[in-house]
Write a structure and sequence with these properties.
single chain; alpha+beta; 9 helices
């Protein structure tokens, strides 16, 4: 492999540490509604910056991996809507012909360890994100995953708006009998927001869960596609704008993550309230000023 090919493939090496930055934006939409606030876009109450939780990003990644890896071994999803987690644990015991616990008696530690290995091999999100799988009568222990994603925060404050809606269909038949012809509703949105999030990949933890180069390739592709396949009435204009991966020379790292993240800057391009990506200036290092032992891969943007 040539030096150029090695540098290009660096972000696919599970034996090396990776820290990454991702940018995405939303126009006239709600990137992550807060159920405690009636579904309004999440914001920092002090700065009014928009927020998107790590859980929301992981959900989009899980959904995308399920599409990319459908029918491929090792790409099942552990945290899946409508499927009880204990039922997923039982799959491991059934596949390995292990005997679940009875009453307060737990399965043998060796059986739990074998089931845990099966879970890591079978479920992509267990291998990447980790999971607490100690519940039920078929426990599989606890796995600390190598991949962590932070909350995403908008570059500047966002304006959370509520738009009233009128619907001409009724939910209940008795409302039609009463002659009611319309129902009122509401939709929450921000006019525009550019969000920045961060992620970390630990090579030592990846070795424990069995992450492969193909797993990392799937991760980066899922990032580039997750918003394209997550469209909804309140997420019609969401787009990934950048994905920048800093790869270290070894599994423990050559520089603090924050020192690398600080080199990717986003600043307003004008004085007016931003209404598009062109209203910001994004600066990404060309690689010449990176610390020794760190390379940068622009996966997207």
């Amino acid at each position: 492999m040539t030096a150029a090919e090695t540098a290009t493939a660096a972000h696919l090496d599970p034996a090396r540490r990776h820290d990454f930055v991702f940018h995405f934006d939303v126009r006239d939409g709600n990137p992550n509604g807060d159920p405690d606030a009636g579904g309004m876009p999440r914001t920092d109450p002090e700065t009014q910056q928009g927020l998107v939780t790590d859980v929301a990003i992981k959900r989009k990644l899980r959904n995308m991996v399920a599409l990319l890896g459908e029918g491929t071994p090792g790409h099942d999803i552990y945290v899946e809507a409508g499927v009880a987690l204990n039922a997923q644990h039982k799959r491991a015991y059934t596949a390995l012909s292990l005997k679940p616990g009875e009453g307060k008696a737990k399965p043998a530690p060796a059986d739990q360890a074998a089931a845990q290995r099966w879970m890591c091999e079978t479920f992509y999100d267990v291998r990447m994100f980790g999971a607490v799988m100690s519940t039920g009568n078929a426990p599989c222990g606890r796995v600390q995953g190598p991949l962590q994603v932070t909350f995403s925060r908008s570059v500047g404050p966002v304006l959370s708006q509520e738009h009233g809606l009128t619907r001409v269909t009724q939910t209940r038949e008795e409302d039609i009998a009463k002659g009611e012809t319309t129902e009122m509703g509401a939709k929450h949105a921000v006019p525009y927001g550019l969000y920045v999030g961060y992620g970390h990949f630990s090579a030592p933890l990846a070795a424990r869960t069995g992450v492969t180069s193909q797993d990392l390739a799937t991760l980066w592709r899922a990032f580039t596609l997750m918003l394209e396949h997550d469209r909804a009435s309140t997420r019609g204009e969401m787009a990934l704008r950048g994905l920048y991966v800093f790869t270290h020379a070894d599994k423990f790292g050559s520089a603090p993550a924050q020192a690398l993240f600080d080199q990717v800057t986003v600043t307003p391009a004008g004085q007016q309230p931003p209404r598009g990506y062109a209203d910001y200036q994004v600066s990404v290092p060309d690689g010449s000023d990176l610390p020794d032992g760190v390379t940068l891969t622009r996966v997207f943007g």
